[in-house]
């Protein structure tokens, strides 16, 4: 009779488990820290705390490089072998990468209180873990049989840009050069996160839809993916050149592509199956976000007065509405599938996902509705609290799957 695996062995037995576990915990920790800072900074509760790094740039780092990557790596660890009919990611690579990235995040938090050198050490440790994860994925990519590798090739390039963006952030901490920070924040969104999430959606949303919707026709042209990726890169390059008035040249075509795919992929039909609907709802935020970016840029292009339209609403429509909602939807599905559970979204997860949309809406409307200007700080804090109110129960619901054996008795 086989000896039962320990909790640590269960977490390490499948490559996605440790990444998803840490990502769930970090989603709670990062937003708790942000809510605490907002409450003190705006005098809502307590007083402002002096951090070694400006809170806005610490928040940006924690979300771009210290939250989403755990879920991205965990997902790609499961899909690369499936996409390319190749060998699985060795658990030791996934587990060591997870521990290094988690340890780096902890050091970064300590550095916020103890000083930039400690935070920089944390980023360096995260870079080491990231490097191991990328190495493990590239081994699969290069050693897989000859077949269609377009999707994993794109995501691999984006992962390298993410590593470079984090490296730029480390150098900014050490040197204070503003150009490095500009590259880090631009690369994190436009060269790393958006290309990966769009590429995964292009591959997976039509596939998942075809599995559950009757008479579903898969529409997945590659030309539209290349156009969307070109627009994403174009936005990032224009940002680095501070050509904000011309961003609409990239944003509006990307919005048109995203809205076309939402319609073609069957947004309305997806509501028949909640596990599928969460993915389509999350993807719909991409079209809305890029419309907001485009309108914001056109306002700059049309006016010499340099008006500020929408503030950070487009950015949060993208990061909370699209990225974070997609994490909840996609990770819920992967967790259930790899835990040997039925692929059915329970009522709790559906309600938490719908509630989570409120966090995105509150944060977006706070910068759009003129009447909300006076209440903006309170709305920023409210958006964070709604995030926590939905994300904490979601994390508590799914985390135990990462240290339990599969329900169907299969390995992993």
Short summary of the structure?
The protein has helices spanning 7-12, 15-41, 55-64, 68-84, 91-114, 116-143, 150-175, 178-212, 222-240, 248-264, 274-302, 313-338, 347-365, 376-398.
Describe this entry's structure for a reader:
This protein has 412 residues and is mainly α. The protein has one domain: Up-down Bundle (Cytochrome C Oxidase, Chain A), CATH 1.20.210.10. Helix content is 74%, strand content 0%. The chain has 14 helices and no strands. The protein has helices spanning 7-12, 15-41, 55-64, 68-84, 91-114, 116-143, 150-175, 178-212, 222-240, 248-264, 274-302, 313-338, 347-365, 376-398. α2 (15-41) runs antiparallel to α3. The longest helix has 35 residues, at 178-212. It is globular and about 65 Å long.
